[in-house]
Amino acid sequence: MVYLYFDKENSEKDDGTNKEGKLKIVKPISLLQLHDLNIAIRVNRQDLVTYILCQNEYLNLNSCLIRSPPIALAVQSRNPCVVKLLLDHGCDVNKLFEYEIGTYETPLNYACRHGDYEIVKLLLQHNADPNITNIDHCSPLLNAAREGFHEICIALIKYKANLNMPEKNGQTPLHMACKYFYRSYKSAEILIAHGAKSTQPDFKRRLCTDMICFSDSFTNEQGEEVLLIGQNFIEQKNVIGMLFDSETRPIRIYADGVFDLFHIGHAKLFEQIKNLVPNCELVVGVVNDNDSFKNKGCFPIMSQDERCNIVETCKHVDELIKNPPFYPTIEFCANHRIDLVAHDDHPYPVDGMNDCYEPFKESNRFLVTQREQFISTTDIVKRILNNYSNLIICPKFQA
Fold first, then answer.
1. Which of 141, 218, 333, 396 is most enclosed, with most CB atoms within 10 A?
2. Based on the domain organization, do 42 and 154 belong to the same domain?
3. Structural domains in the chain (count)
4. Is 227 within the bounds of a domain?
5. According to the model, what pLDDT value does residue 203 have?
6. Could you tell me the CA-to-CA distances from 391 to 301, 376, 379 in Å, in that order?
7. In 10 A of CB 348, how many CB atoms?
8. What residues make up the domain containing 337?
9. Residue 263 maps to which CATH number?
10. Distance separating alpha carbons of residues 391 and 389, to the nearest angstrom
11. How far apart are CA 159 and CA 161, in angstroms?
12. Which residues lie closer than 8 Å to 342 by C-beta, 6 or more apart?
């Protein structure tokens, strides 16, 4: 098969009959080359894929003349490197392909169904639409939520996936997370935290809470009974609580710190959170002395009981948590039904991480606050040390 095109720029007007341009024969491009590319993808030969793409600049990777286009095979082969090569070469990321007989879906939908997080990220970065559904009207987010791939759910939400898009039976991603609750309860928690509607019924007028079958055990795909013990059991109960009151309870926001020598900067932080999110519940964690020493290099001046008592008396604080982890985690927030974490936007490196708040920033559960510029506990301590010579001669400081 040979392709011809008009070469307008270099047309020769020797006989005056070809004023618009002339036909130029380019390098032959055959379906055989697409088949060769597909074979290289099937056997995971990244070097051959690179060679074929480099040697055939006119290769149409979106051709409808073959049943399995290269991008569809690459996603099925679950090879992120090959997927990236094809995406960089101009594959159509939003085209529907037949992956199984009678099943048409986009590469993104297929990757979400099978939990290929790296491929999902690549497709989203190359403008894959997270709201294109398959022939059953199942969106990528619904498939990820049903299978319990909560990290993929977070990535899709970040790229503006529709939280409440129903499939052919009217069931939303939250319906699916509840239906398969034993494996998808974390997906349900993420959907609720980002505003999924728990009161949206399906076509049989069933709510998300009607789909939950919760017990202390479940039967896995092999038919074996698996007990839910310890932390998993507690987390699932907390998510069920979130489902039942997600439409009525106020947003719970968490702020933590040492809060040593409590000052106006601390009080303004709490006031700022209340102003940013009116009618929220402010939950404050006061870290213990040992964690403060381990991470800051010194013990607080005030004892933990003193710090807790003064924080608790602040009118903006609705709930106090004593001895929280030094930095919040997703699991900690799930246990305390916390929706957002508040802190300033500067990276906070701890325990080998560049920023301990990064998981909350990536999942849109981070509330940015502003630090008080002219006062801090460190500043107060420096003032005391600078005034030490005057303090020691003052009679009321004499032993």
1. 141
2. yes
3. 2
4. no
5. 87
6. 17, 21, 17
7. 14
8. 252-385
9. 3.40.50.620
10. 6
11. 6
12. 253, 254, 255, 269, 273, 366, 367, 368, 369
Alpha carbons 185 and 172: distance in angstroms, whole number: 15
DSSP character for 125?
H
**Residues constituting the chain:** 399
Closest CA to 156 of 368, 367, 354, 364: 364
Q: What is the rounded average pLDDT of the residues 237-247?
A: 58
Identify the sign of the CA torsion 269, 273, 279, 280.
negative
pTM: 0.53
**Radius of gyration (Cα) for the chain, nearest Å?**
29
318 within 8 A of 361, measured Cβ to Cβ:
no
Which tens digits make up the pLDDT trace of 1-10?
A: 344 344 444 4
User: 320 to each of 6, 78, 186, 248, 354, how far by Cα in Å?
Assistant: 75, 46, 25, 22, 27
Domain boundary among 178, 196, 230: 178
Block residue for tokens 């009959």: 17
**Segments of the chain assigned E as strands:** 4-7, 22-25, 97-100, 103-105, 217-219, 225-227, 252-257, 281-286, 319-322, 340-343, 366-368
Query: What per-residue confidence (pLDDT) applies to 231?
Result: 45
Q: How many Cβ atoms from other residues are within 10 Å of residue 202's Cβ?
A: 17
Question: In angstroms, rounded to a whole number, what is the distance separating the alpha carbons of residues 311 and 267?
Answer: 9
Residue 230 in domain: no
